[in-house]
Specification:
33 strands; binds magnesium ion; binds adenosine-5'-diphosphate; alpha/beta; eight-stranded parallel barrel
Length: 942
């Protein structure tokens, strides 16, 4: 076996192999090979570093000899000699792993200087100040990094020297002072460490290489890798780059700087960066002097400006990416020292993707693949102004992205009243309920102190695209007193707060926010995405407004329209309650029939907004108790009413004492207090209260009757539809009548009726029977031929297993992956997310929260089974997903690989889904067949 090669000169390294050469080494190799002016040097591979750790921190065999040989070559190439006072060669020893870990590992400059060389170098350059300054930097950097001396000791000496001389800046030190500093530095090393600073350059080099290897396992680097989840597969060991020094600090025809090929803040196609004349690279970052904007270099060093412009284009053409590079100018000659992909903000990413395609630098495919869906997400919502320096006072779960400021209100009614006047308000509650919905409409944002990401507040806010923070447990809310207390600070109604639903942060006061940007660049880019993808993108929308929003965001249909949201409107809830509380069949039918025209009008509105595009309407899903008040609140109200009744007629009754007995939630059902005050003194008052008590007792009885141990696994969805057929019959009627009326108005209503919670084909067969009957009667009544699809949610494990017979009855499947995930894990999401999932993820028991990122090997496997079995009997079975995962990029990619027809997500995530669907398709094309069959292919279900 040929011995492993550990050392590659920049001319020879495989510039594509970042794993072996590290990012910096690969960049230096590629720039050298492209003919850019790179000071010559070589790379010691990451493999050598791994060997070093594998063999108890010994240099691997042969490495020493290879380094010596490479140094010889370097001497020949540069016509200089390492350690020779006459024509000295100096090198830097630079760390660089496969992934950029900025500032986490070490680099030492100016190796090759010693007492003798510095003296000769000072004379030869006729610049002793520079020579001794370089030596001082070497002793300090080497002392700290390669020998373990304390930084503080060097800083003290430098400070003392400046003081003694009355200087403010390092560069004001005289030659004598600098020489003195060098001597003291060496003395500190000897005193503290008991060894001399090595005068033998080869010894310096070996120690420096070892120190760079060592920095791979340094605390900073280890912490950084843990924090950013950098695994050994991604990046293992650091390479070491040994490179001829060039000096930006030899005079005013010298400079050093860092630049981006484009502005990373705006994406503008201009060189962006800073530089310093007469300085060494580290000075720019160190902030010792204030660097100048790069544009000034055009004036200050006009001969070198064209070098920079040329490099800018060469780099982008080579990397097809904006580059962030380091350069140094030594006595008028321009050198490149590093290049890497530029980190940019979201705006710049989108802008440069569009521009670089139009300039011919990128292909459309590259432009789409380089944008992360997270970036898009940032642009689609208002966010906290990045330049605002505000400290959050509390934080909760980020439930719905976007930032909003407004006056605190504690009741939905107050939100409505104040919001209507145009005042921005934030609704702050312990948790929200369906009857708070009118407050949501007027609020700019919602903040709760309890509940998880599927709490009512979270789900509703997400659906509306309003910023929402939930479960901010540090906030104590007293909605009677209308005050919140956060870490001892009282916030009364009307005080302004700001919430960031993207991060979960809560701020006091009006923190500046910036507008979302859906500019022309984004439109162009998403247009390309639409041309590239095969997976459809729909939205979940319950109202005509949401539907219009969805369309504006590019949705190609509605994948989920939840009818229960319509039941919660203020004018409907009483009717719905009548329906539930009905004592006779006739009473129930009457209530149901009152709902029919209302639902029909809703459906017409949505079909119209989506004209020509499919709308999937789900029949009623939640358990009925969700439309009734909770047991606790009823008991509270009844207690309060009974106390009020006992006070009536008592001698010292007055309004104020009664007022304190009334539960706030009762105010709506009682006459105003002034009126009540009068009535209460007489028998009339008793009657009012007695009637109310009776009404509440009836509701209480019903609530008790329909209370279930596990309502989410209880009487809901199709189970309700089958046992109370009037309900589904009315809904189906309202849907089909809406379609029929629109057909007669020449509006193209594309309808899909969807049944929730199905576990058994028989359930569907029965609902289908209902559909047939209703269809026949609507067709007769309206004289039209109806055209629509009948399908089912797939959200129970059994539905996946029985997908084959289910597909015989239905024309489409839509995965409800929230319920399916709960069912697959037997986790209740709320409990899991608040109790143990965070620890599970932290400890690595589960890789991710399966309610956010689709669990490919569990839930995904069931989905695969369902798709395959369903299509086996109905090849044209349409399959979609309407759970929240439908807006999650990696889950979207999985859906693409499984042949789903569409994903459906919140209107505000539609652009993200469009991009993610395009990326899924493009990546699939990129991957070769072999890779797909490779066991590591991430979407292979095992
Ligand atoms: P980092 O990865 O922390 O940026 P680098 O290895 O890039 O560390 O080096 C730190 C500084 O030293 C940079 O400003 C770099 O440009 C400069 N530098 C490194 N090697 C040389 C060299 N051979 N000649 C001149 N400057 C150098
Ligand atoms: Mg660098
Ligand atoms: Mg469901």
């Amino acid at each position: 076996m040929a011995p492993t090669k550990y050392v590659f000169p920049f001319e020879q390294g495989d510039a594509g192999d970042r794993q072996l050469l590290g990012g910096k080494g690969a960049g230096l190799a590629s720039m050298t090979q492209m003919g850019l002016p790179v000071p010559p040097g070589f790379t010691v591979t990451t493999h050598a570093c791994r060997q070093y750790y594998a063999t108890d921190q010994q240099f691997p065999e042969g490495l020493g000899a290879e380094v010596h040989a490479a140094m010889k070559q370097l001497e020949e190439k540069t016509d200089k000699v390492f350690g020779d006072p006459e024509k000295p060669l100096f090198v830097s020893v630079r760390s660089g792993a496969a992934m950029s870990m900025p500032g986490m590992m070490d680099t030492i400059l100016n190796l090759g200087l010693n007492d003798q060389v510095v003296e000769a170098f000072a004379q030869a350059t006729d610049n002793p100040r520079f020579a001794y300054d370089a030596y001082r930097r070497l002793i300090q950097g080497f002392g700290e990094i390669a020998m373990g001396a304390e930084e503080r000791r060097f800083a003290e000496i430098l400070e003392a020297a400046k003081q003694k001389q009355g200087a403010t800046y390092d560069y004001e030190l005289t030659i004598k002072s600098l020489k003195d500093v060098c001597d003291k530095y060496k003395q500190v090393i000897l005193d503290d460490l008991g060894v001399e600073f090595p005068q033998d350059p080869m010894k310096q080099l070996e120690m420096a290489i070892e120190a760079v290897f060592g920095s791979w396992m340094g605390k900073r680097a280890v912490d950084y890798r843990r924090e950013f989840k950098i695994t050994p597969e991604m990046c293992n060991g650091t390479a070491v780059n040994v490179q001829t020094m060039v000096f930006g600090n030899m005079g005013n025809d010298c400079a050093t700087g860092v630049a981006f090929t484009r502005d990373p803040g705006t994406g503008d196609n201009v060189l962006y960066g800073e530089y310093l004349t007469n300085a060494q690279g580290e000075d720019v970052v160190a902030g010792i002097r204030t660097p100048k904007p790069i544009a000034e270099l055009e004036r200050e060093m006009p001969e070198n400006w064209p070098d920079l412009q040329k490099v800018r284009h060469t780099l982008e053409e080579r990397y097809h990416e904006v580059q962030d590079f380091e350069f140094t100018i030594e006595r008028g000659k321009f050198y490149m020292l590093q290049t890497r992909n530029g980190k940019m903000n979201a705006t710049a990413f989108v802008r440069t993707s569009r521009d670089m395609v139009e300039e011919g630098v990128l292909s459309v495919e590259e432009a789409l693949l380089r944008i992360s869906p997270d970036h898009l997400e940032q642009l689609l919502h208002r966010r906290i102004d990045p330049s605002a320096d505000a400290e959050p006072i509390a934080s909760g779960l980020p439930a719905s992205p976007g930032a909003a400021s407004g006056a605190v209100v504690f009741e939905a009614d107050d939100a409505e009243a104040r919001g209507r006047t145009g005042e921005p308000v934030i609704l702050v509650r312990e948790e929200t309920k369906p009857e708070d919905i009118h407050g949501f409409f007027q609020a700019k944002g919602i903040l709760t102190s309890r509940g998880g990401k599927t709490s009512h507040a979270a789900v509703v806010a997400r659906g509306m695209g309003k910023p929402c923070v939930v479960g901010a447990e540090d906030i104590l809310i007293d909605d009677r007193e209308k005050v919140a207390v956060i870490k001892g600070q009282r916030i009364s109604e009307g005080e302004v707060i700001t919430i960031d639903g993207g991060s979960g942060a809560v701020y006091i006061g009006d923190v500046p926010t910036v507008e979302p940007e859906f500019g022309p660049e984004m439109k162009t880019l998403l247009g390309w995405a639409d041309e590239s993808r095969t997976l459809g993108v729909r939205a979940n929308a319950d109202t005509p407004e949401d539907a219009a929003k969805a369309r504006e965001m590019g949705a190609e249909g509605i994948g989920l329209c939840r009818t229960e949201r319509m039941f919660n409107a203020a004018d409907r809830l009483p009717i719905v309650r009548d329906m539930i509380l009905a004592r006779t069949e006739a009473e129930r039918r009457e209530a149901i029939e009152k709902l029919r025209p209302m639902q029909k009008a809703d459906f017409k509105g949505i079909f119209k907004a989506m004209e020509g595009l499919p709308v999937t309407i789900r029949l009623l899903d939640p358990p009925l108790h969700e439309f009734l008040p909770s047991l606790e609140s009823l008991l509270l109200e009844l207690g309060s009413l009974r106390r009020v009744r006992d006070h009536i007629g008592a001698s010292k009754t007055n309004r104020e004492s009664i007022a304190t007995l009334i539960e706030p939630s009762l105010k709506e059902s009682l006459p105003p207090l002034e009126q009540l005050g009068e009535q209460l003194s007489g028998a009339e008052g008793k009657l009012v209260i007695d009637a109310l008590i009776e009404e509440k007792e009836t509701i209480l009885q019903t609530v008790r009757d329909i209370t279930e141990v596990n309502p989410m696994l209880g009487h809901r969805g199709v189970r309700l539809g089958i046992t109370v057929p009037e309900l589904y019959s009315m809904q189906i009627g309202a849907i089909l009548e809406a379609v029929a009326e629109l057909t007669n108005e020449n509006v193209d209503a594309v309808c899909e009726i969807m049944v929730p919670q199905v576990t058994e084909p028989q359930e569907l067969a029965r609902v289908n029977e209902l559909v047939k009957q209703v269809r026949a009667s609507v067709e007769r009544e309206y004289g039209v031929q109806l055209d629509f699809k009948f399908g089912t949610m797939i959200e129970a494990v059994r539905a996946c297993i029985r997908a084959r017979p289910i597909a015989e009855i239905t024309e489409f499947f839509s995965f409800g992956t929230n319920d399916l995930t709960q069912a697959t894990f037997s986790f209740s999401r709320e409990d899991a997310e608040t109790k143990f999932l965070p620890q599970y993820v932290e400890m690595g028991v589960l890789p991710e929260n399966p309610f956010e990122a689709l669990d490919i090997h569990g839930v995904g496997r069931l989905m695969k089974l369902a798709v395959e079995s369903g299509r086996a009997v109905r090849p044209d079975l349409k399959v979609g997903i309407c759970g929240e995962h439908g807006g999650h990029p990696r889950s979207i990619e999985f859906c693409h690989t499984q042949g789903l027809d569409y994903v459906s997500c919140s209107p505000f995530r539609v652009p993200i889904a469009r991009l993610a669907a395009a990326q899924a398709k493009l990546r699939e094309e990129r991957r070769s067949r072999e890779e797909r069959e490779h066991p590591d292919y991430p979407f292979n279900v095992m």
